[in-house]
Amino acid sequence: MSNNPKELKLAVLIDADNVPYSNVKGMMEEITKFGTPTTKRIYADWTKPNANGWKSVLLEHAITPIQQYSYTTGKNSSDSALIIDAMDLLYSGKLDGFCIVSSDSDFTRLAIRLRESGMKVIGIGEQKTPKPFISACDRFIFIEVLDGAIKKKAPKTIIDTKKPVEKTTTKTPEKPTQKPLNKIDEPTIELIESTIEDLADDDGWAFLGDVGNLIVKKKPEFDPRNYGFSKLTPMLKSLTDILEIDERDSDKKGIKHVYVRLLFS
How far is residue 83 from each of residues 49, 109, 110, 133, 256, measured CA to CA in Å? Predict the structure, then answer.
């Protein structure tokens, strides 16, 4: 298995019954952050009328549609085909990991089995995804925070053209870049604090990159975008009442290493 996450060969298996086609572009862009999708398959009963919108999306992203007929009503027809293909791909020995796109808890056991075989498992699904499936993945990303996700439009701001626009040079504080899915609640604060304590040196400082990696290991669905921040650094910079940030020069010009420490420990 490659040590560089961007070199991982990934199989992307999409449960179309649980994912809107408007989200595919954002999902595929997100997946490339973790590796190269060498296999891309999507499962559905393509004879149904609601499958019509998928055609152009599948062609654009070179995703292979897999036909799975609905043998019974009220049951997701894609589950069994996706699971069988995943196991076949696992035993091919040509992959480093899987990306399972679904909000269905039926894939929990599959994710566990793949990880037992040394595969990296990334899950992508809606916020309603059951906790067992989320916990079974190495990393879980909510569709709602990805580019292309269906979001409510913000109300238009009415500008009074008669009133002069005031210029300001005051530096604005760090704020969320988008509407958050979650608030930074007490359990999240405790998770951040305990992780910093786990990694801190004798002076209490912990490298931010290590903090982010360990948080995700503890909570696979953790993502600064869930809280309205594009990255972990601005999210932690917003917690000035409990954290101290130190940006240190590195060997490379223009690149700084960020360290974080609890104010009260």
Answer: 24, 10, 7, 14, 44
